[in-house]
Amino acid sequence: MDLYVNGLRPLLFRVPADDAHRLAIAALRWPLLWRLIGSGPDHDPRLGLDLAGVKLANPIGLAPGFDKDCDVLASLQHLGFGFLAPGAIMREVRAGNPRPRLGRVVEQQAVINCMGLPSKGRAHAIANLQRLKQRRVPIFAEVQGTSKDEILDNVVAVQPYAEVVEVGLVCPNARDTDRYREVSEAVELIHSLAGVRTGPVLAKLPNQHHTSRHDILAPCLQACVEAGLEGVVVSGTKRYATAQLSMGVGSLAGRPVFEETLGLVREAFQLAGDRLAIIASGGVLTGRDAFEMLRAGASAIQFYSAMVYRGWNAPALINRELAAVLEAEGIESVQALVQRGRRTVGV
Ligand SMILES: Cc1cc2nc3c(=O)[nH]c(=O)nc-3n(C[C@H](O)[C@H](O)[C@H](O)COP(=O)(O)O)c2cc1C
């Protein structure tokens, strides 16, 4: 019996999602506890890989949005993730949109949000990163901003404290980041990253709330290759109109965006081949889902919704399931699967 799915989840789902997330963060403020009950990091050698020059114990990461201010990384390190992507880190303190700004569509295993990039500010996040003395899991810190200058400034400030910087090119729920809806602006920003970065950088590409995937993918991928970035994060999240959220509209994540994300991974891989690492972010809830993304060309996964539907064991369970799928498919390791995907497409 799964303590989270059968015990805690039904109780948490009676609480508004904003409060449930606050409770989860409060519970994760006890690293010693999670060290005892957490299951990671998983050292199954079949799952290890090299991503952007960084060694990961497994390809399963936490997506930005869950620990926006790097408050609970010390505990999250014990859950079995291969990497953690806290953020989005913003330069200034921001309130974000009013509540309710987080919700669930339980029958679809989906999470909806219109957070609007709330932040305790960059100084707070950096202080937390500095305090994280024992690094068990690589940190892929995500930065965003309301202008190109702010984004570049955030990259410069945060990169000494993270193994990798993820740059979120747009947030669909924060009106003051709208400028990057224009693909030409995203391309310009990607090019500018080359001038400021000192370590590995991944670009989290704009999703398709306002622009079609064909308009976004090819020019952004080309810009990332030209700028020498290590990779991209692609996410199939969708615009979702609902009275559940204060803004009347938000982003849909979780199970319903799996197919879209898989399509993005395939297309990105066809366009960029092994010139860019591809991280898939959208709809991965099981090891089989992760396997499909890796087979389609992803090098790693980052998820959020699986934390809501499977709880603190999600990374360990997904890793175990992934190892079982590899075995059933006769594939010796994640690294072999990723390389095999590359050969299949013939890039
Ligand atoms: C409440 C919430 C907040 C999020 N905040 C961010 C964010 O700050 N930056 C970002 O790039 N993505 C953010 N995301 C998107 C996630 O990183 C992820 O790409 C998306 O949820 C799809 O993955 P999933 O289907 O596994 O949830 C957020 C998602 C949720 C649900």
Give the overall shape: globular
Amino-to-carboxy terminus distance: 45 Å
Report the C-alpha radius of gyration, rounded: 18 Å
CATH architecture: Alpha-Beta Barrel
Q: How many domain units? A: 1
* CATH C-level label: Alpha Beta
Read across the widest sheet, the strand sequence of neighbours is: 4-3-14-13-10-9-8-7
Element string (H = helix, E = strand): HHHEEEHEEEHEHEHEHEEEHEHEHHH
Beta content comes to: 15-25%
CATH fold annotation? TIM Barrel
Helix content: 40-55%
Look at the structure and name the CATH superfamily: Aldolase class I
Query: Segments where pLDDT lies below 50 for 5+ residues?
Result: none
**Structure classification:** alpha/beta
The kinds of small molecule bound in this structure are:
flavin mononucleotide
**Major pleated sheet:** 8 strands, parallel
**How many individual helices?**
13
Task: Please tally the β strands and state the result.
Answer: 14
Integer average pLDDT: 93
